[in-house]
Amino acid sequence: LPGYGDSPSAEMVVTAQGRRTFLDHVLQELGMQRPVLVSPSMSGRFSLPFLVAQGDRLAGFVPIAPVGTKDYTAEQYQQVQTPTLILYGDHDTRLAPQALQNLKHLPKHRVAVLPGAGHACYLDKPEDFHRALLGFLRQLK
């Protein structure tokens, strides 16, 4: 993501609107129509503005303890009709509970908790992560 890790920063991603526009541009450039957006940790700064504004363009959403969930109200989340799998490791006792507290307002959500996994639950328990993800994907229309 621009501005994270070793990637160069980009002026357009300073605001939530800019990050939403950036993600929209990426999806358009890739020719993706109704993708499932998997969003771990810092990518929440990009995925959540997109979800709230254009969630109808997604077939599904899989937040994995994303940052930025407190930036939106329960009412904003309640307007989103995107099927969502809220996924996190039970050893992530800091970010995951906060994200769950906010994301539980999404009307079409289910929750999968990976026992023994931390914040990067997909690295800690890859088989359990993929099992939960594939189960969710199979249920999408």
Automatic annotation (TrEMBL):
Location(s), subcellular: Cytoplasm
Main location: cytoplasm
TM annotation in the entry: none
Organism taxonomic ancestry: Eukaryota, Metazoa, Chordata, Craniata, Vertebrata
Example of a GO cellular component annotation carried by this entry: cytoplasm
Family of this protein: Belongs to the AB hydrolase superfamily. ABHD14 family.
Domain of life: Eukaryota
Keyword Transmembrane: no
Span of domain AB hydrolase-1: 71-126
Listed name of the protein: ABHEA protein
Gene3D superfamilies: alpha/beta hydrolase
Keyword set, alphabetical order: Cytoplasm
